[in-house]
Design a protein that fits this description.
By secondary structure, the protein is an alpha/beta fold. It has two helices and seven strands. The chain has two domains: 56 residues, 2,3-Dihydroxybiphenyl 1,2-Dioxygenase, domain 1 (Roll), CATH 3.10.180; 53 residues, 2,3-Dihydroxybiphenyl 1,2-Dioxygenase, domain 1 (Roll). The longest helix has 12 residues. 23% of the residues are buried.
């Protein structure tokens, strides 16, 4: 068994799908609309992501969220995501908590450009 897709309930599926496609280096399916949008898995694989629109604004904390590993440094990745429309919620030494454009929580972990206790950097 494997995870084929992740699905987000949201208000505007196309808006949130565009953010996540840009964040993950992927594309939004050409038939996507504000009611139903799909983000293709990135070149390295992984699950696709569905966005179901028309569900209204987010009212409660996520019960599940994504943890992303930076490909450069955590600070560089957080800056890039903020430029795409994410909001920084809280920064820690080992993780940064953000919201996507509709308030869904996700985290960014350090990447290869960050100091690591075992490396002495």
């Amino acid at each position: 068994m494997f995870i084929k897709n992740l699905t987000f309930d949201c208000d505007d599926a196309l808006r949130v799908a565009r953010f996540w496609a840009a964040a993950l280096g992927s594309d939004v399916d050409e038939d996507s609309t504000s009611e139903r949008a799909y983000v293709e898995p990135a070149a390295w694989g992984g699950p696709g992501i569905w966005f179901r629109g028309g569900r209204g604004p987010k009212l409660a904390p996520n019960r599940l969220h994504l943890d992303l590993r930076a490909l450069t440094s955590m600070d560089e990745e957080v800056e890039r995501l903020a430029g795409l429309g994410a909001t920084v919620v809280e920064r820690f030494e080992d993780i940064t908590v953000l919201h996507d454009p509709e308030g869904n929580e996700f985290c960014v972990e350090p990447g290869p450009g960050d100091p690591h206790p075992a490396s002495g950097r």
